[in-house]
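B., you asked whether I could sanity-check this one before it goes into the benchmark set. Here's the sequence:
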Amino acid sequence: MTKPLREILQGVTYHCYTRCHGKKNLFHSSYVRKYLTDAIIMCQEKYKFELVAVEPVGNHIHLIIKTIEGRETISSIMQYIKARVAEKYNRATGETGAFWNERFGSNIIEKADNPEQYLLWLLWYIGFNPVRKNLSRDPRENYMGFINCYLVKNYEARVKITLHNYFSNLGNTFEECVKKFLFYEEAYLKRIAVYF
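And here's what the prediction gave me:
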């Protein structure tokens, strides 16, 4: 059965995710995480888009990307990043097979019932993903460090992160936005506590 065509829109925010071939934990390697960092930086230099969040988690990655009207599509951006990671990995290891498992999955944030709440909760979900997999103790300690951009003014992560306007709309100052954003962390922690 063929997969449905991806909905391609401009000026919207996508949550993208993709797994390594065979669900191998290739992102446990610091070298592979660096390949991802380099690929994103290359893509940011080549294409115009906003990277809202990114985190590698063992055998997969999550990215939140906002496309720009009249610029590259989400498919072009993701294909570029995935291709560069695969090239770097295969060149370093001498491998010739596939690096990625399948085409990437994506959801458009603005199509959610409550896009603002969904995105702010999703940022913590992605941030806590490595914690749930015992790869870090706190989202603030994750490899990419994207969550710190939403908590520390002018924080510089490994790649350029653009704060989403849903975050900026939480208050009149950065500090007000952070205070309200932390409520989403608290709500997320309460929600996952139900399962443990």
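One thing to flag: The CA atoms of residues 26 and 196 lie 27 Å apart. Otherwise nothing jumped out at me.
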